[in-house]
Specification:
about 0% strand
Length: about 400
């Protein structure tokens, strides 16, 4: 039996959930500088195939969420989390000693499966404790801390590579996950009460999935995130090639990556300050429209061959600044109506966003042709599709407020 954690403060709760979810970002972004070294050491034939190190992790991460959701609704949040973290740690250690590229991809897939617990339990625990604009504010603060990892992760990966051993990256991930697991084991309270737990029975599970898929607003906000995340994964998969092969940054690539991620963290903090005043819908819709316009400008400049590095960094940074206000709010809007099945809802949306986003991102990455045109095209088209999903969710009305908030006022 797990020991009961003492009451945790709101700041520590936010920091802990952010730390748990940041393990996922770490497992992706810390790998980027090491992809060429790994590809050479494991004799990967084509440089675009190195991206599978990211894709295999994301697929495992997405699929396993379907299982962690119902399990966490039955057994609570803490036990599945500790199991998932244990899988993450063991898989990272085994990946460090993988003898070939295929074996490495298998362990990356398993590592992603373990990481799925952090995403499902993290969002479920937030929904257990908060709702409405307060939930959006908390999610923004978590996302802000979460974004600190992409700021530093590539630099950490680069530093570890100076030793000459890319395997140290996996051991570093295992060590950090171990410390986070200990923190969660002793400090994270169980947020799902006994009376709110759902039996782990096929009929009950099906009912939970039915509640998620039958809620138009929640479903289409969740689906909109598939396309936005697909754009992000498409860039992450080609980031090393864009920064190093196109713009020749070499070892300075992590610094450029960190600059963009830092702006996203600032954007998330700003969102936490304004979402309570203007509402999730108004902020989300404005951010999505801005994301689409800036993506269109990026594509136009790329097609016109008017995209030197400084212009690229300005336009792309502003695009991702809008993403920082979009991601956490869209997830909060998807989760808001589904508090009774928070674990299942988190797992469904996590599966759709991760697997769907990874597939879209892999498709974008596979079309890398030595320019940023495929990536910019993906951003713009996916932003338009995401807007269409939001229009369906809101029955064609944008920039409004929630019905619950209208009743209160």
């Amino acid at each position: 039996m797990m020991p009961a954690a003492r009451q945790i403060s709101r700041p520590e709760f936010i920091a802990l959930i952010a730390g748990l979810m940041a393990l996922n970002a770490l497992a992706i972004d810390i790998m980027l500088p090491a992809l060429p070294a790994m590809g050479e050491a494991l004799r990967v034939a084509h440089e675009n195939e190195r991206q599978y190190v990211i894709t295999s992790y994301l697929i495992g991460f997405g699929i396993a969420q379907l299982f962690f959701g119902p399990i966490s609704d039955r057994f609570g949040r803490r036990p599945p989390l500790i199991v998932g973290l244990s899988v993450y740690i063991v898989a990272a250690v085994l990946a460090a000693i993988a003898p070939n590229f295929t074996t490495l991809l298998i362990f990356r897939f398993v590592q992603g499966m373990g990481a799925a617990s952090t995403r499902v339990i993290g969002q479920s625990a937030v929904r257990d404790r908060f709702s409405g604009r307060t939930m959006a504010e908390v999610m923004s603060l978590i996302f802000m801390v979460f974004m600190a990892i992409p700021v530093i992760a590539p630099s950490i990966g680069q530093l570890l590579l100076f030793s000459g051993h890319w395997q140290l990256i996996f051991l570093f991930m295992a060590g950090l996950a171990t410390l986070t697991a200990i923190w969660a084991y002793f400090r994270l309270e169980e947020s799902l009460t006994e009376e709110n737990r759902r039996p782990l029975h096929p009929k009950v599970i099906a009912e939970g999935f039915g509640l998620v898929f039958s809620n138009r607003s929640a479903l289409f906000y969740g689906v909109s995130s598939i396309f936005v995340m697909g754009a992000l994964f498409g860039f992450i998969g080609t980031a090393q090639q864009i920064y190093v092969d196109i713009y020749g940054l070499g070892a300075w690539f992590p610094l450029a990556f960190a600059g963009v991620a830092g702006l996203m963290a600032v954007s998330s903090f700003l969102n936490s300050r304004i979402v309570g005043r203007f509402g999730m819908r108004r902020v989300t819709h404005s951010a999505l429209a801005t994301f689409a316009l800036l993506s269109g400008l990026w594509l136009l400049l790329a097609l016109s061959d008017m995209l030197p590095f400084i212009v690229f960094m300005i336009v792309f940074s502003l695009t991702m600044f809008s993403f920082g206000m979009l991601g956490s709010n869209a997830q909060a809007l998807a989760m808001e109506p589904l508090g009774a099945v928070a674990g299942t809802a988190s797992s469904v949306f996590g599966f759709l966003q991760t697997v769907g986003g990874a597939a879209i991102g892999a498709w974008i990455g596979a079309h890398f042709d030595g320019t940023v045109v495929p990536t910019a095209t993906g951003f713009f088209l996916l932003a338009l599709v995401a807007i269409g999903c939001v229009l369906i969710a809101e029955k064609g009305r944008l920039f409004g407020v929630s019905p619950q908030y209208q009743k209160k006022n």
